[in-house]
Amino acid sequence: MLAELTATEWAVLAVAALTVGFAKTAISGAGAVTVVLFAWVLPARESTGVVLPVLIVGDLLAVSIYRRHADWGMLWRLFPWVAVGTVLGAVFVAYADDELMRIAIGVTLLVLSAGQLLRRSPAQGPATDRTTAPIAEPPPGPGTATGRRVLAAGAGVLAGVTTMVANAAGAVTSLYFLLSGLPILRFLGTGAWFYLVVNLFKVPFSVGLGLLTWEALLLDLTLVPAVLAGAVTGVVVIKRIDQRRFEQVTLALVVVAAVLLLVDP
């Protein structure tokens, strides 16, 4: 694998790894672009195994920075459904080819993005207030309590499937967190713990499916410095962005990633 990569492909992988670090500490929607970049250089199926350790490195960095801002109530609502979705995704990966995987995730992201645009309401209050909202304050979430539970179940299952299929749970959960009205720091803290737990949970499945190999780990090791650089960049950027812009950029990146996945590389 390593010997076959061209200089251009190495450059794309470095940008993808940098984007992982940036997504983990700033705009999580950028993570969807990472999926596309890895899939452009490597076969879609193989890329899911290569990118997983890179994501875990980014997750550890994000948890170390934002661990105190997590909404654990939301996490406990998601985790059981993510486990179900991960098992379903593993079955799908065992039988699906590269093209079907790419199309499936691209269509899913477009549908979810359309739903977010239709349900989106103007941000309430000053952006700085929403950015620093106390963790004890419940998010405004859409609809009734039953509706929120149904949304959590759907998002959890879909996140599990998509994370196993193409490491794209970030796009799904980003849209779910936006719908739930999480302020920036709580968004990042909740996402940091969520992705770390989910990605670690996926490791045995990826090994069993032959997606995570020693050669993939060697490639990942070379990309760690780029992840660190992206994480530092993200910490700087997130201090200079307000809530409304944060939501707009997140949603835009998810849509871009979905479109790129549907375009034959």
Furnish the topology, listing elements before pairings.
Blueprint: H1 7-25, H2 30-41, H3 44-66, H4 72-95, H5 98-119, H6 127-131, H7 145-166, H8 169-179, H9 184-208, H10 214-238, H11 243-262
Helix pairs in contact: 1-2, 1-3, 1-10, 2-3, 2-11, 3-9, 3-10, 4-7, 4-9, 5-8, 5-11, 7-8, 8-11
Keyword list:
78% helix; 265 residues; mainly alpha; globular
Major beta sheet, specifics?
none
Question: By helix and strand content, what is the structural category?
Answer: mainly alpha
Could you give the distance between the termini? 19 Å
Summed up, the domain count is 1
| Rounded radius of gyration (Å) | 17 Å
The fraction of residues assigned to DSSP E strands is under 5%
Total strand segments: 0
Low-pLDDT regions: 121-141
Gross morphology: globular
Chain-averaged pLDDT: 79
Helix residue percentage: over 70%
- The number of helices is 11
Task: Briefly summarize what is shown.
The protein has 265 residues and is an all-alpha fold. Helices cover 78% and strands 0% of the residues. Helix 1 (7-25) runs antiparallel to helix 2 (30-41).
What would your notes on this structure say?
This protein has 265 residues and is mostly helical. It has helices spanning 7-25, 30-41, 44-66, 72-95, 98-119, 127-131, 145-166, 169-179, 184-208, 214-238, 243-262. It has one domain (7-262). Helix 2 packs antiparallel against helix 3 (44-66) and helix 3 crosses helix 10. The longest helix is centred in the last third of the chain and has 25 residues, at 184-208.
